[in-house]
Amino acid sequence: MPGNLLQAELGYPELSRYGSTDEKLTAIQNYLFLLLENLRYTLRNLSMEDNFNQSDLSRWVDGLDIAANVVVSNTVITNELYAAFGAIADLAVDELRTDWQRAQRYLDGDTSNLDYIHIHDEAICFRTAVVQVSPGGTPLTEQLHHGTRYFWWRDAGRTEMTSLEDTGLPVTVYRYTEYDKGQFCFAEERDAGGTVQKIPVLKLGAGTDATGVNGTARLVKHADGLELSYTASGGELAALHMREDGFADLRQRRASVRVDTALQRIAVTPEGALGAPVLIQYTESAGGNLSLTWPDGASFTVEVV
Q: Which portions of the chain are predicted below pLDDT 70?
């Protein structure tokens, strides 16, 4: 086996120089080994500038038979993209949207609200896009684009689009105003010791004011419990915090209380409750203390001082 690939002779070996069949096979094996290693080295060190024609490469990428019928551009394609029978086995992207039907909606004249999912950074957003209209009621339009990358129809048939060249046929879509009606994301929280950690937060509602807070609900998994809250359109906060000690802490808790001394019971009706009041039995013990018993049998003593 040659010890230095760079100094090895890559020409096909002259087999007449070798006497036995074993020597000839060894020479051929060495040649194939060197050829394979040099091919690997060459392929690993190819550059876009010196070894590829950009227009031909773009044409090849656009011609790929992708089952999802998506536009493939500025994408690194590896052998991990396809699995058996064409299924995607492993795919890493920096953004994912499901509003692919914008162009078709414009062609169909469909101005109804567009609901879709947008995944980016550390958030999954459930969005509703509403078509913008002029003061006269005419739907506003724009060219389909993603950042600074604009899309064009390949031909007048409008069956395929590209972002690699200006064909003079812009892909026209409606201009939308978008609202996040739901969002599942990470948020930073500082614990009692001052350590900052990421916690999952679920937000529901687009909001009724400029801040996007009023009129929304939040479900937050804290390190020490679970919080469910709702901020009313006027900014009032109602919340339920299920704590680590097993108790549920209610905010904005107000109730009307009626004491029936004849039946020795207290009727408690929380504000906004739709059902019957909670009836709490009480008895006086020595020293004037009260023993309260809930409908489920739980009881404790109220000390009167």
A: 1-11, 45-54, 56-91, 252, 272-275
Q: How many CB atoms lie within 10 A of CB 114?
A: 19
Helix/strand/coil for 202? strand
Whole-number Å distance between alpha carbons of 166 and 267 = 75
Give the number of other CB atoms < 10 A from CB of residue 61.
16
Smallest CA-to-CA distance from 179 within 125, 123, 111, 252 is with 125
Domain ranges for the chain, please list them: 5-44, 48-86, 95-115+129-178, 180-250, 255-302
- Residue 131 pLDDT: 97
| Dist CA 54 CA 164 (whole Å) | 10
b/e sequence 232-254, b meaning 16+ C-beta within 10 Å: eeeeeeebebeeeeeeeeeeeee
pLDDT at 88: 55
Query: In this structure, is the dihedral angle defined by the CA atoms of residues 26, 32, 35 and 36, taken in order, positive or negative?
Result: negative
pTM (predicted TM-score): 0.57
Residue 242 and residue 149: Cα distance in Å, rounded?
48
pLDDT at 84: 41
Given phi > 0 = left and psi -120 to 50 = alpha, else beta, which region is 86?
Answer: left
- Tokens 């899309």 sit on residue: 151
Burial of 108 (C-beta count, 10 Å sphere; 0-12/13-18/19+):
exposed
User: Which regions of the chain does DSSP assign to beta strands (E)?
Assistant: 95-97, 114-120, 123-131, 141-143, 145-146, 149-150, 152-153, 161-162, 172-174, 176-190, 196-204, 216-222, 225-231, 237-243, 248-250, 255-260, 265-270, 278-284, 290-293, 299-302
H or E segment and range at residue 26: helix 21-44
Nearest partner of 7 among 34, 25, 32, 29, judged by Cα: 34
